[in-house]
Design a protein that fits this description.
The chain is mostly helical and 290 residues long. 59% of the residues lie in helices and 1% in strands. It has 13 helices and two strands, in the order H-H-H-E-H-E-H-H-H-H-H-H-H-H-H. The protein has a two-stranded antiparallel ribbon with strand order 1-2. Helix 7 crosses helix 11 (241-260) and helix 8 (177-201) runs antiparallel to helix 9 (207-217). It is globular. The mean pLDDT is 92.
């Protein structure tokens, strides 16, 4: 219970987190189903098709070039949705060398595994701009009181990076259904991890129960399942930060858009969030109530 509060920056209980996670699982599966139907494929054909070689690359130079294309598109469109009245440091795209990072999906840790090109858009948004690179750079130039610089809330940091993934269309990404599909493919993993973490670390699920839960919602990915179960045991409650934080930001955006109507300014909305530094994200709604 303590670790849930510590990591998320909210007062949600483990039971509330579990139910939230299940709701997200069903929502994401519905999004994937909608994309499948839109492609005119049945379930078996759909999963065979998205596993074809054309969606995977092993040449790191090709991967880097595709990321660079995304970066250029984003830089041309960032000011449409995010504050740009400051100097954004250059983001260098290069293959990582730290094999300790090899278990997470990212170009910076592309080693011997083929890279799924459907991950390009959401991954650049999350790790680059306007995700972690953008947020950390923006926060570093704020003139905050000294005590405010001591906060680091993962619910805010990972929540922001997960939130911007939902809005790639604001800045020129997600041009094809496959780009959206890549986002939802990883989102289902993030969603299943939420109740899985509570089950393992709060309800006391054993390995068999945990694996059965994973397979119920994500079939044919046992290797990823074991990796995530091991991570959850080593790092209790951290997996909640992404979706809990993103959900708070999504609700704020919807609420402010409804409240302000035609006067809603997306750039101003994002600036108000970023100007807080990295406070516990459960406090962020209070900023908008003032």
């Amino acid at each position: 219970r303590y670790l849930v509060k510590k990591w998320t920056g909210t007062r949600m209980t483990p039971d509330e987190i579990f139910e939230f996670g299940l709701e997200e699982v069903y929502q994401v599966k519905a999004e994937i189903k909608t994309l499948q139907l839109g492609m005119g494929l049945d379930s078996s054909t759909f999963y065979q098709y998205i596993d074809e070689d054309k969606f995977f690359l092993e040449d790191s130079n090709q991967v880097a070039a595709l990321f660079s294309e995304r970066q250029q598109t984003v830089l041309e469109n960032l000011d449409k949705a995010y504050p740009m009245d400051w100097k954004l440091p250059e983001l260098k795209i290069a293959r990582g060398r730290d094999e300790a990072l090899a278990s997470a999906p990212g170009y910076y840790n592309l080693f011997d595994y083929p890279f799924n090109v459907r991950q390009l858009d959401w991954l650049f948004l999350h790790e680059g701009n306007p995700g972690h690179h953008f947020q950390v750079s923006y926060t570093s130039q704020l003139d905050l009181p000294a005590y405010r610089t001591q906060f680091f809330n993962a619910g805010f940091s990972e929540g922001w990076a997960a939130y911007v993934e939902y809005h790639g269309e604001d800045i020129g990404l997600y041009e094809t259904p496959y780009d959206y599909l890549g986002k939802w493919e990883w989102d289902i993993v993030r969603s299943v991890r939420i109740p899985l973490d509570v089950g393992i670390n709060y309800y006391g699920w054993n390995e068999e129960t945990a694996m059965a839960f994973w397979k119920k919602y994500i079939p044919n990915q046992d290797e990823i399942a074991q990796r995530e179960i091991d991570r959850i045991r080593r790092w209790p409650a951290q997996v909640h930060t992404y979706k809990v934080g993103a959900a708070i930001l999504q609700k704020l955006r919807k609420k402010e858009r409804k409240r302000l109507g035609k006067d809603f300014d997306l750039v101003a909305f994002h600036k108000k969030i970023l100007d807080q530094g990295r406070i516990p994200i459960g406090l962020l709604p209070m900023v908008f109530e003032r």
